[in-house]
Amino acid sequence: MSRNYLIFIIIFIFFSASHLPAQDMVRVNEVIDTLCSPEMYGRGYTYHGDKIAANYIATQFKNAGLKSYTNDYSQPFQLNINIFPDDLALKIGKRTLIPGKEFIMDPSSGGFIGKGKIIPVDTLIFSDSNALKAFLKVDIKGQALVLDQKFEKFIYDLPRPGIAHLLQAGALLILTEKLTFGASRNQLQIAKFQVLKDCYPEKAKKAIFQVEAVLHKFYKTQNLVGYIPGTTKPDSIIIVCAHYDHLGTMGQNVYFPGANDNASGVAMLLEIAHKYGKNPLPYTLVFIAFGAEEAGLVGSHYFTQYPLFELSKTRFVVNLDLFGTGEEGMMVVNGKALTKEFEWIKQINEENKYLPAIKKRGQAANSDHYFFSQNGVPAFFFYLMGDWPNYHDINDVPNLPLTKFSGAYNLINDFIEKLSTNHVK
Ligand SMILES: [Zn+2]
To answer: Sign of the CA dihedral 292, 293, 296, 302?
Structure first.
């Protein structure tokens, strides 16, 4: 092959590729970096991280050319939420533990400022009534109980007097192999810590605590909803959604970036919005960035109760959560229930070799598709699988592998287009 001919082919490929609307990885990384930046405070409720993230996403919706049903794409709602607005301190024996790295709060923890004697919980209390009787006699008021995480679940099976006694302690230290934060709409009477086993000084006799916890009632947060009107069947709707909230901060200096969960899914949603903003489909596409998913699917539950259009017009919901990997393929939650659409996805993937594997599960209440399914709206929840062990901790930072982001993008678009051209309901 002549050199000139080769150059011609390269130029030809370059120009044809640049005419295809493809995802823009520079923008993808920019979106993920911005959502995970300290200025967004982990997209939780301390320092109004949720609102800062929502404003940013509204701007992105506008840039993608989405229309709004409301003012600024916002659908407000309220929730109770337990937050830790001040910096935390925990000293066990002589060791001062580092917040975020060596200990975190249980999301439902109450506050506690003071010190206490360390009392290991005799784990026999969970199986032996004599041990429980002996425990009930120990004065634990204001002290620090220590328990291995293996036994944590048995607390809830204790008889009432056992639980009431336990709650008299000042703090409960749960020793664990992995710190996993969350979001809670309730607050316990007791301060509850997760402490990394490796950092716990076994022989310590005393602990000093400084935790302020605030149960914020009726906190105002929001979903963001934008849409692209369908060209020929605007009354048929496909919803593409991803939650933008994450776990916020513990004080000013520790925050949970939530790169994989779910800045990656929001980035995917925005790429899809950009694509169809310029090239509308026969069906209307609705894009929703849900708030308060981590607090128990609160935003999506609210939307299904107060939808901005008749829910019955919805042909399908595509929920995106965890798009940072992909080397092990993609999971389709509800794939076992909606077999026809699952077969479409498999077929699209086999023809184009977008992803190494497509797997299916049954219904699960693990993300924002759930309340749609419960309301009879067909919904899939897609997540990519691969090597990213950082879940609900401070290490879920934006250096995601994004191995199959591009393959997933193409697969989801092909699926949406197939949904939008097969007028079956
Ligand atoms: Zn998530």
So the answer is: positive
Q: How far is the CA of 408 from the centre of ligand 1 (A)?
A: 17
* Residues with Cβ–ion distance below 5 A, ligand 1: 261-262, 321
Count how many domains the chain has: 2
DSSP 8-state secondary structure symbol assigned to residue 396: -
Do 275 and 410 belong to one domain? Answer: yes
**For residue 190, is it within any domain?**
yes
Would you say residue 329 lies in a domain? yes
- Across the beta sheet with 112-120, the strand order is 95-97, 89-92, 206-211, 112-120, 144-148, 171-176, 191-196, 103-105
* Residue that terminates a domain, selected from 211, 236, 261: 211
Separation of CA 268 and ligand 1 centre (Å): 13
Tell me how far the alpha carbon of residue 331 lies from the centroid of ligand 1, in angstroms.
Answer: 14
Distance 132 CA to ligand 1 centre (A): 39
Q: Residue 186, preceding bond cis, omega within 30 degrees?
A: no
Q: State the distance from the centre of ligand 1 to the C-alpha of 243, rounded, in angstroms.
A: 7
**Helical (H) or strand (E) element with 339:** helix 339-352
CA of 181 to the centre of ligand 1 (A): 12
Distance 260 CA to ligand 1 centre (A): 8
How far, in Å, from the CA of 230 to the mean position of ligand 1? 29
Domain residues for the domain of 116 are 89-211
Beta bridge partners of 147: 174
Residue 14 domain flag = no
Average pLDDT across each block of 10 residues of the chain; the chain has 425 residues. List them in order: 51 45 88 98 97 98 97 96 96 97 97 95 94 94 96 93 93 97 96 96 95 97 98 97 98 96 98 96 98 98 98 97 98 97 97 97 95 97 97 96 96 97 57
Q: Is residue 15 part of a domain?
A: no
Residue 201 CA to ligand 1 center (angstroms) comes to 34
Same domain, 287 and 379: yes
Q: Domain boundary at 149, 181, 211, which?
A: 211
